[in-house]
C-alpha cells in the first residue's frame, strides 16, 4: 500500500467530503481550510470570506488502488468547475474550485486534469491551481458531517445526494456504493 494525499476545494467541504468518503481507495478525508492569511481560522471567520481560505478537503488515498489523476477526475466530475467563487447557492471565494498540489508531480497532474475538464465542457473551467499554504483542520463537528448531522440538514439533503448519485453513475467503478 502506497498512500498519498491530495488537497482540493470544490465548494462546501461537507459535500466534497461526502463524495470522497465513498470513493474506493480513499482511506481518510479531512475537512479543513487552506489558501488564506489568518492563522488557525475558525469556520465563522472563513465563512465571512475575509480570511482568503477555501473550504477544502485533504484526501488520503492508496495509489495502488486509485491514481491522483483519477482522484482529480472524480473531483472535476462531482462539482461544477465552471462556477467562479461559488457552488450553487454557496457564494464567495471560500467556495472556490481549486487544487493545491503538494509536489511537482501533482502540479503536472492538476494541469492535465484541468485540460481534460476543459475538453469535456462547453463553459470555461475556472478551477485554479494554488500553492499549498498551511492546512488547518476544520472544527471536529465538521468532520464526517454527512454521516452525522448532515442527514438531518436540509441544505445537505438537497446538495449531497445528487453528488453521490453522480459519483455512482459517472464513476461506478470508483464508488464503494453501487448506483441505485
Question: What would you note in describing this structure?
Answer:
This protein has 180 residues and is an alpha+beta fold. The protein has one domain (3-174): 2-Layer Sandwich (Peptide Methionine Sulfoxide Reductase, Chain A). The chain has 5 helices and 8 strands. The strands form 2 sheets. A 6-stranded mixed beta sheet has the order 7-6-1-3-2-8, covered by helices on one side. A two-stranded antiparallel ribbon has the order 4-5. Strand 6 (97-99), helix 4 (104-119) and strand 7 form a beta-alpha-beta unit. Helix 1 runs parallel beside helix 5 and helix 3 (68-78) packs across helix 4 (104-119). Keywords: Oxidoreductase. The active site is at 12. It is an enzyme of class 1 (oxidoreductase).
What's the architecture, going by CATH?
2-Layer Sandwich
How far apart, in Å, are the first and last alpha carbons? 30 Å
* Percentage of β-strand residues: 15-25%
Oligomeric assembly: single chain
Shape: globular
- Level-1 CATH class name: Alpha Beta
Catalytic activity: L-methionyl-[protein] + [thioredoxin]-disulfide + H2O = L-methionyl-(S)-S-oxide-[protein] + [thioredoxin]-dithiol; [thioredoxin]-disulfide + L-methionine + H2O = L-methionine (S)-S-oxide + [thioredoxin]-dithiol
GO molecular function: peptide-methionine (S)-S-oxide reductase activity
EC number: 1.8.4.11
Enzyme class: oxidoreductase
Amino acid at each position: 500500500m502506497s498512500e498519498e494525499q491530495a488537497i482540493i476545494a470544490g465548494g462546501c467541504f461537507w459535500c466534497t467530503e461526502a463524495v470522497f468518503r465513498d470513493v474506493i481507495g480513499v482511506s481518510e478525508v479531512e475537512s479543513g481550510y487552506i489558501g488564506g492569511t489568518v492563522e488557525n481560522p475558525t469556520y465563522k471567520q472563513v465563512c465571512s470570506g475575509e480570511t482568503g481560505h477555501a473550504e477544502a478537503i485533504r484526501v488520503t488515498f492508496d495509489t495502488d488502488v486509485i491514481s491522483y489523476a483519477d482522484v482529480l477526475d472524480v473531483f472535476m466530475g462531482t462539482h461544477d468547475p465552471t462556477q467562479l467563487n461559488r457552488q450553487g447557492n454557496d457564494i464567495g471565494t471560500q467556495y472556490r474550485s481549486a487544487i493545491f498540489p503538494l509536489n511537482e508531480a501533482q502540479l503536472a497532474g492538476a494541469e492535465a486534469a484541468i485540460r481534460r475538464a476543459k475538453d469535456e465542457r462547453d463553459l470555461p473551467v475556472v478551477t485554479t491551481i494554488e500553492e499549498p499554504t498551511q492546512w488547518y483542520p476544520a472544527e471536529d463537528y465538521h468532520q464526517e458531517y454527512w454521516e452525522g448531522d448532515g442527514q438531518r440538514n436540509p441544505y445537505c439533503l438537497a446538495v449531497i445526494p445528487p453528488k453521490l448519485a453522480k459519483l455512482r453513475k459517472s464513476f461506478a467503478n470508483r464508488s464503494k456504493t453501487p448506483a441505485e
